[in-house]
């Protein structure tokens, strides 16, 4: 069962976010959600136990490889390791596609780090097509 994140279940959601993005503490996700910057967050329940989440957004700026706007964007997806391989991720992606249609989108986009082979395989297995690879650089201008 997939349910929207509410005050009642936001701690479980924030803990999953921290597992996916360990450089950010769970409290920061809750703070951002309170500001309204994370409005499309959903938890996946196996019975009464939350075992994963999906984070979605609507992007109106350019999204690599897309031809329409807005674009539904998969910001993050996480399933507890012991529940992987049970089609939960696939069900979350199916949910995301339906969510995208409901929000007037014709495309669902996502990304992953170049070295994240598991994520890349998951995306391809779910039907995403790779559109670009990029390496980003930065330089201090005052050095």
What does this structure look like?
The structure is a single chain. Helices cover 31% and strands 22% of the residues. With 143 residues, it is of the alpha+beta class. A hairpin with a 2-residue loop joins strand 2 and strand 3 (49-59).
Summarize the helices and strands and which ones pair or pack.
Blueprint: E1 2-4, H1 10-20, H2 26-34, E2 40-46, E3 49-59, E4 71-79, H3 88-102, E5 108-109, H4 117-126
Parallel strand pairs: 4-5
Antiparallel strand pairs: 1-2, 2-3, 3-4
Helix pairs in contact: 1-2
Q: Ranges with pLDDT <50 over ≥5 residues?
A: none
Helical content stands at: 25-40%
N/C terminus separation? 53 Å
- Mean pLDDT equals 94
Major beta sheet summary: 5 strands, mixed
Strand segment tally: 5
By secondary-structure content and strand pairing, the structural class works out as alpha+beta
Count of helical regions: 4
Rg is: 16 Å
Envelope shape = globular
- Strand order within the widest beta sheet: 1-2-3-4-5
Strand proportion, as a percent range, falls in 15-25%
Element-level helix/strand string: EHHEEEHEH
């Amino acid at each position: 069962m997939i349910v929207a994140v509410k005050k009642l279940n936001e701690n479980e959601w924030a803990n999953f976010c921290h597992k996916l993005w360990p450089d950010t503490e769970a409290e920061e996700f809750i703070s951002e959600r309170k500001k309204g910057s994370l409005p499309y967050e959903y938890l996946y329940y196996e019975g009464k136990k939350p075992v994963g989440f999906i984070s979605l957004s609507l992007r109106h700026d350019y999204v690599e490889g897309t031809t329409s706007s807005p674009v539904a964007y998969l910001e993050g997806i996480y399933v507890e390791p012991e529940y992987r391989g049970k089609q939960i991720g696939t069900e979350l992606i199916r949910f995301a596609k339906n969510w995208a249609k409901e929000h007037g989108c014709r495309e669902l986009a996502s990304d992953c780090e170049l070295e994240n082979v598991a994520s890349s395989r998951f995306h391809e297995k779910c039907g995403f097509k790779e559109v670009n690879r990029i390496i980003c650089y930065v330089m201090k201008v005052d050095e």
